[in-house]
Amino acid sequence: MNDARHARPFLEAFDRAIADLYAQHDGLRVNVLYTYEMPDLESDHFIFHIEEEVLAGGARGVLEAFEQALLEEVGDALVADIVAVDDVRLTRYKAALAVEATDAAALAPLREGTFVCTVTDDAGNPIAGSRVSIDLEGGGRIVGGRVVETDAGGKAAFVYEAASTPGDVVFHIRAANLLVTMEGYVRVPRDIEHDAPERVERLSATRITYHVVDAEGILVGGMEVGVRLHAGVGQIVDEEPYRDGRGAFTYMAKHTPGGAIFEIRAGARSAHIPVAVH
Predict the structure, then answer these.
(1) CB 239: neighbour CB atoms within 10 A?
(2) Which of 226, 213, 225 is nearest to 187 (CA)?
(3) pLDDT tens digits, 174-189
(4) Which residue stretches of the chain have pLDDT < 50?
(5) Spans of all domains in the chain
(6) Are 181 and 130 in contact (CB under 8 A)?
(7) Given CA atoms 136, 141, 142, 146 in this order, what sign does their dihedral have?
(8) How far apart are CA 88 and CA 10, in angstroms?
(9) Which of 45, 113, 239, 266 gives 35 a disulfide partner, CB atoms 3.0 to 4.6 angstroms apart?
(10) What is the predicted pLDDT for the residue at 3?
């Protein structure tokens, strides 16, 4: 960045604020509210989020990152038209970190679960480019990298592969100065439980739910589960994918009496469910 560009009003005002930024910085993300004027236009403002990595690059790195962000926000041609800078205000805030786990709370050995992490600012806006990391205590591994940057929607995803033997695991997920800790279990599936009725009416639609549990009755996720009509008549529709230890399907009975037997298979375990039609 040469001296001529550095002398632009929009850079001069921001450059003067950098010293305050470093004086105030206490390890939190920094939010810059930048208000500016253009010819024949009302004042407008631009919010610039400064990440830890940018602060680590020193004042020049912050200035370059700010100029690039403003060019993307306003446009290269319009930036040169800024005639005054009304306010450059630095505020600090804590980001928010939310984690959604799928099939990760209780997994069968060697199965996979996912974590989707969302980083937002204190106004609920997604923060892109924020570094999110995951560490674990216990068996298993993270498939792929343990550090991921959030996308434009503020999201970062991790895949966990369970160990080959049962046990407990603790996940530590970090973003900025935030920490989310979650507990998980590697469980061996033992039983398939369901709520199927003994008999249904002809031409009826019956919703049947099921779940896979271990010896202690804890749900086991991450299983490859299949449902089929083993014998009899009727049809399986609206099958809900197995997730977090639960699945469901609807049985459409025919107009003739008789019945059906459903088979639910989860890994090496299977259950046969008879339902009479009258």
Answers:
(1) 12
(2) 213
(3) 987 788 999 988 888 8
(4) 1-7, 25-29
(5) 3-93, 96-186, 191-277
(6) no
(7) positive
(8) 10
(9) 45
(10) 36
Structure tokens at 27: 């390890």
Strand ordering across the sheet containing 258-266: 199-200, 269-277, 258-266, 225-232
Residue 277's alpha-carbon distances to 34, 205, 232, 254, in angstroms, are 71, 11, 10, 8
Query: What does the chain come to in residues?
Result: 278
* Sheet containing 29-37: order of strands: 44-50, 29-37, 84-93
Does the global pTM surpass 0.90?
no
The domain made up of 191-277 has a fold known as Immunoglobulin-like (2.60.40)
Residue range 96-186 in CATH 3.40.50.300: no
Burial class from Cβ neighbours inside 10 Å (0-12, 13-18, 19+) for residue 174 reads: middle
pLDDT, position 116: 96
Residue of 211, 230, 225 whose CA lies nearest to 275: 230
